Structure formats: C-alpha cells, structure tokens
Amino acid sequence: MKVIIIGAGMGGLSAGLALKRLGHEVTVYEKVTEIKPVGAAISLWSNGVKCLNYLGLHAQVAALGGQMDSMAYVDGLSGKTMTEFSLQPLVESVGQRPYPVSRAALQQMLLEQFGAGAVHLGMALTDVTDDGHQVTAHFADGHSDTADVLIGADGTHSTVRGYILGQQPERRYAGYVNWNGLVDIAQDIAPAQQWTTFVGQGKRVSVMPIAGGRFYFFFDVPLPKGLANVRSEYQRLLRSYFEGWATPVQTLIDRIDPETTNRVEIHDIEPFMTWTKGRVALLGDAGHSTTPDIGQGGCQAMEDAIVLATALQTNTLGVEDALVRYQNRRNQRTADLVLRARKRCDVTHAKDAAVTQAWYDGLWTEDGSNIIRGIVANIEGNPLDA
C-alpha cells in the first residue's frame, strides 16, 4: 500500500517508520525548506519511549536521553526546596525510564532512520481530493501525488484538518508565554540529574538534564498575547519578570543565549472527535493540539503512529474502516489529555490565585507519591501497556 504523510515532524516520521516496518511504501512531504524543530527539547515520558522502543530505536533514544533520577519543586523567591523525591517508583510502575531529549537530535535521529531521501521539503499542501479509490495531494508548486492513504501530520496549523472538518477550529490562547532553550549543566543552577522546577507568582522556571551535559530550560510567564518578540530584550524582560527570585534563577537568566532561545505563545485547540474523511486521517498536533503542561504532546503523536500502523495492518474491511477504527481508539484518550493539560496549565499559571496558592502550600508536605501518581495516570492507557 502507498501512503502519503504530510508533515515531517516527530509524529509524521514515527508514523512513516511504523508503516515502513510493515512493508508499506511511504512518502513524506514537508512544507518548510529546512527542518527546524519548534522548541529546544521535549519531555519524552515512558509511553513515548516505549513507542520508539517498539520501532526498534531503543538504543538510539537512550543515547539521546538525559539521566533524570529525581524531581524537585523549589520556592522561586526563597530558593527553599518544597519537595524532592526519586523518580524510581515511576520507572518501576510503568517499566521504562523517561528521557528528556533534544528536539533537534530526536528529529535528526528519526529522519536518518526513515531515510532523508524519502522526505520532500518545500512542499506546501494546498488541497486534497479523494475519489473513493485513491487520494491525491496537491501542492503549491503544481506537483501532485496519489496514494491509497493520506495522513495529515502537519501540526497545529494543519491544512489536512481543514479538509477533514470543512473548517479550521480556533486556537485557544492558554494565557502564558514560554521561553525555552539549552544551557550547560551547572550545580549552581540545579543538581545535574534532577528535574528542578522553581514556582511562585503563577510563574515557573524549570531545568531538566538532556544528553551532552546540558540542561533544557524553560520560563513560563502569564502575559497577554501579541506582545513584541525581540531577542535582544529576552534577558532584560526575564530579569524583570523574575525580579527578587532566588539566585539560581538569576544565574540561569544570565547564562541563556538569546540567539538560540525560543519564545512561544502557548495555545491549544478544543478537542474534537472526527479525525478521518474517506482515505484521509489526522495524526499528532493536527488531531489534538495541546499545551505542554503535562509533557504529552509528542508522546501522543508517537502513540498515534503505532495505533495507525496496527489498524491498517490488522483490519481488512477497507482503508476507510481501518482509519475510523484508528480514530476511535485514539480520540478519547487524546481529548482527555488535552483537557488534563489545560487544567494543569490553569493551576500552574494562577488562573485562580487561591487554587494555585493551595497547590504551593501542598508542595511543602508532598512526598512525591501524588505527583508520580499523576504522571503515571498520563502514561497508562498507551497502546503498548503490558
């Protein structure tokens, strides 16, 4: 069977790998002329790692992952540790370590495994037609390609989603701006093998270790959308937003490189349940755009890839039927996680100040069990649960 995938992100390439392993002919089209991952790194939780393990990439993803043994919350202003605990109970519960990884390194690894020659860059999709027997992708340069199946893995601004739904759902601003990037691991910022998060005032500063002796960092600040984005102002603005915060936060601000730091206004999309139309289906952010507050966006795209490949391999009533079965296995799980991330976002960023203060107060007596239970709840229900 011939499959066209629109989008060469993590979801599209994971789906391409899963389908190629089953003997399908897969071609990926990507609208950008150079693949540049959005964001510096990703929290690849155990369910996402399991999907890559299933694709035969156990050693490759382990090599990219940071050694994250523990987790801590720190009061942003006083610098006092609120709670600190091992992540080993999480690992033992779900059977796989999580790996914070560089987005660029993960993307490059997936591209190399899939085969860069089968990815066509600079190809902007303009239209899709489906005659009931085959589906055709039409591109801005006049090129077209026909296949048995077309998968829209073209992200939160998906063109394929508009074809399936007949309209584009509105993106919802989550209320905060995120700055993220990479710095060298340093003990005067945080312990080298710990995910450390400073919290206060509805803001968040976090560092987690990735391979190569680097921390992935991010700063969250509740702000109106549409403010000017000027790289030369990043450090000045962060110093003002985090004025009076503890020394490690100030040290981190001093060490970021504005030229390699990303600034993102965070959005999501209200969950919707229709992912398919004939021989066309959605995957990843195109089908379930989420905030990053529970770290499941990329993991859910990888889960999609495994379920999609399995559905096309094991169901024999036709492509359209297999795609609907894929949709129906995935849409409720991803909708639940989008809403779970939204709820976590609102607590973290003080949508209701009293609720957020109650969360801060509880962190001082937290032994880690409640937090781990919440993370495990996100991981459980994945298609590779033993």
From TrEMBL:
Pfam families for this protein: FAD_binding_3 (PF01494)
GO MF: FAD binding; FAD-dependent urate hydroxylase activity; urate oxidase activity
E.C. number(s) listed in UniProt: 1.14.13.113
Catalysed reactions, as listed in the record: urate + NADH + O2 + H(+) = 5-hydroxyisourate + NAD(+) + H2O
Pathway: Purine metabolism; urate degradation
Cofactor: FAD
First-tier enzyme category under EC: oxidoreductase
Keywords: FAD, Flavoprotein, Monooxygenase, NAD, Oxidoreductase, Purine metabolism
GO biological process: purine nucleobase metabolic process; urate catabolic process
Domain (FAD-binding) ranges: 2-338
Superkingdom of the source species: Bacteria
NCBIfam families, alphabetized: urate_HpxO
Similarity comment text for this entry: Belongs to the FAD-dependent urate hydroxylase family.
Name under which the protein is recorded: FAD-dependent urate hydroxylase
Organism listed in the record: Lampropedia puyangensis
Organism lineage string: Bacteria, Pseudomonadati, Pseudomonadota, Betaproteobacteria, Burkholderiales
